[in-house]
Amino acid sequence: MVSIDTVYQRVLALANKEQRGYITPQEFNLFANQAQMDIFEQYFYDINQFGRVPGNDTSYSDMLNYLEEKISLFKSSANSTIYPEDMYKIGSVQHNTISGKVVICEQINTKDVSMYNNSSLLKPTYDRPVYTLNSSNITVYPNSVTDITINYIKRPEDVNWTYIIVGEKPLVHNLPSVGYRDFELHPSEETKLVVKILSLAGITLKDPLLYQAAGAEDNKNIQQEKQ
Fold first, then answer.
1. pTM of the model
2. Are 61 and 222 in contact (CB under 8 A)?
């Protein structure tokens, strides 16, 4: 995890260094959650890109392992055919048989269900089930399969830098308090979070220099990771 208080203090220090403006805690929380999701979603884009690189280059393999390590923090599971509320992406669906055997279900398209059910070769069985994705759940075939586990990647929980108002003084950090929540990202993402939040703050403060400086730093970090 990454301390939201540490990120908040760094963002404020850098934003106020040249009297660029004040970022309120409300604004910071909005920027922080957007930054966390931007970084989180970039993992899957990068894995897709690196996975297309031909050959077995060590640097790319290392990068893929590093990305998998970051994503592993969000792996979860649920014994249900209904999507968990915090689900971001399905990893696999498994059937836990009566004998204790774990069978990975095959995903098929909804339009192919009839073809599978009417085929003597492809027809789903208790030991060889299939499933389709729906808007809010999965459907498993055959219907005799009931003990299902969805393995999935969950979304990061919303971060929250809590605060109180003391008289007419500036908002003051209230730690610990109900609702306080750190970033769920890998500890190595602290600097990237600061940069992305500053970039978003630059737009709000109408400070193109802050936005450009943060954006340039963000691009530099991305390029360094891909080297």
1. 0.83
2. no
